[in-house]
Design a protein that fits this description.
Distance between the termini: 40 Å
Largest sheet: 9 strands, antiparallel
Order of helices and strands: HEEEEEHHEEEEHEHEHEHEHEHEHE
Number of helices: 10
Radius of gyration: 26 Å
Number of strands: 16
Strand content: 25-35%
Helix content: 25-40%
Shape: elongated
Length: about 450
């Protein structure tokens, strides 16, 4: 995000950073369009990164003019040995940095980098580019590593600009504040007078193993031998519910988009003969036509359909989300709930139960979730309307509480969250005791 801003602002001009510092106020996501605001005054530049009117990040630069040295006079071939990690570290423990800690740019990739960021080492000293890249590598791969949240940075560069694509650190220290999960890295290197980086270590990942689910859920006669299809079942609540159904004695068709450890665990478990994988987007017809025969051959009909899949959920104010983004979120949310009912109609048992996973937010509305609440109200309305068309089937809008999952496991969130396992148990119990006097239900799950 920082480098992209420098590329846009510089417009192929040469410059040298004397100092750069900034802070991230909220996360930035890939494949999302953001706006940059530039305020340049003499040799000082302020940059704001916004989504709508919401400030997500800001940084400031003190600049100086710079002309690339002749290749014969620079040290661009002075590349230190550096082998990057293939996977990010998982344990948020301070790494043992040494005085010989090094980092270098892979110069063979610079042409692609310039295409992506409109920025090159012909415009600014290579050491300065390497410093910014190293800070991202260090936070994301070394410490805190896995799922780190970059918070702030400050870098003061030496007066003598270096054209080396490598960093060799003179001093580097790492400290942590366990109260907030805040990590601090600071030191100096050749061409880099001083730097300080702050980042947050995410809490330990939420892990609901099959064995932990089995200790809570026992076979349920009402579900034994029944077949359920769950969309979005590779992680989070969908994954927990799928494994809970298996432990309760049911068969499960897991719809998912990407492979996960949870799916691998099921395929190696004693339940594998009662599992059918259905890979693909729950909103696309091809996902169902490609798997319909397999479903019919292995299980015959579907007794329980749970529309759990959802677009990525993030808070967004009305000023931050454009009308197109708002409508796209609602449209996809509804499509994920409607598509399985439409495409699997012939495979649904006559008395099948169709569940749309809603949220307690539909009743207790928070701010900055208007898109999410609109989507859930649309899903609930659809379930109640479909109940009029199919009186022989049961339609359920299940308002689930906020649960502790990988998505909600964040710093500085003091809201009480329910266990996904407990919610899965409560939902299954309620589904086996539906009031048959009506076929349209709204269930509040505690």
């Amino acid at each position: 995000a920082v480098l992209a801003g420098l590329g846009i602002w510089s417009d192929s001009r040469n410059f040298r950073l004397k100092r750069i510092s900034g802070r991230f106020h909220k996360p930035l996501f890939r494949n999302t369009a953001y706006a940059y605001e530039f305020n340049e005054n003499d040799n000082h530049l302020n940059v704001n990164i916004l989504h709508g009117d919401t400030l997500l990040a800001e940084y400031q630069c003190d600049l100086d003019s710079w002309r690339q040295q002749d290749k014969s006079k620079n040290d661009s071939n002075d590349v230190t040995e550096f082998t990057p990690l293939s996977l990010a570290r998982h344990k948020p423990e301070p790494p043992c940095f040494t005085d010989h800690h090094t980092y270098s740019i892979d110069t063979s990739k610079l042409d692609r980098f310039e295409t992506l960021y409109n920025l090159s080492t012909r415009q600014l000293p290579a050491t300065q580019l390497a410093t910014i890249l190293w800070s991202s590598y260090c936070v994301g791969m070394l410490w805190p590593g896995h799922q780190a949240l970059y918070s702030s940075f400050s870098m003061d560069f030496a007066d003598e600009a270096s054209s080396s694509p490598s960093l060799s650190f003179d001093k580097i220290t790492a400290d942590s504040d366990e109260r907030y999960g805040l990590t601090t890295i600071q030191g100096s290197a050749k061409g880099l007078a001083y730097f300080k980086i702050e980042a947050f270590a995410r809490p330990e990942p939420v892990c609901h193993t099959l064995s932990s689910i089995e200790t809570v859920i026992k076979p349920m006669p009402a579900l034994t031998g029944k077949t359920a299809l769950i969309t979005g079942a590779s992680r989070g609540f969908g994954s927990v519910l799928a494994r809970a159904l298996l432990a309760a004695g049911g068969n499960v068709i897991l719809n998912y988009r990407s492979d996960t450890e949870e799916i691998d665990e099921l395929l190696q478990s004693d339940y594998r003969s009662r599992v059918l994988l259905m890979k693909g987007s729950a909103s696309e017809s091809e996902t169902y036509t490609r798997n319909a025969n397999s479903i019919q051959q292995q299980f015959g009909t579907i007794d329980l359909l749970v529309s759990n899949a959802s677009p990525a959920i993030a808070p967004a104010s009305s000023r931050q989300m454009s009308p197109q983004e708002f409508s796209s979120f609602v449209q996809l949310s509804v499509a994920l709930g409607y598509a399985p009912v439409f495409h699997l109609d012939d495979l649904l048992a006559e008395n099948a139960v169709i569940v749309g996973i809603s949220s307690v937010y539909a009743d207790n509305i928070p701010k900055e979730f208007s898109h999410y609440v609109a989507a859930k109200w649309a899903l609930e309305g659809m379930m109640h309307a479909l109940a009029k068309e199919y009186p022989e089937r049961q339609f359920v809008a299940a308002r689930l509480p906020r649960m502790l999952t990988d998505q909600t496991n964040v710093n500085f969130d003091f809201e009480t969250k329910s266990s996904a396992i407990d919610v899965a148990v409560a939902l299954l119990n309620r589904l086996t005791k539906l009031d048959n006097e009506t076929n349209s239900h709204t269930l509040g799950i505690d």
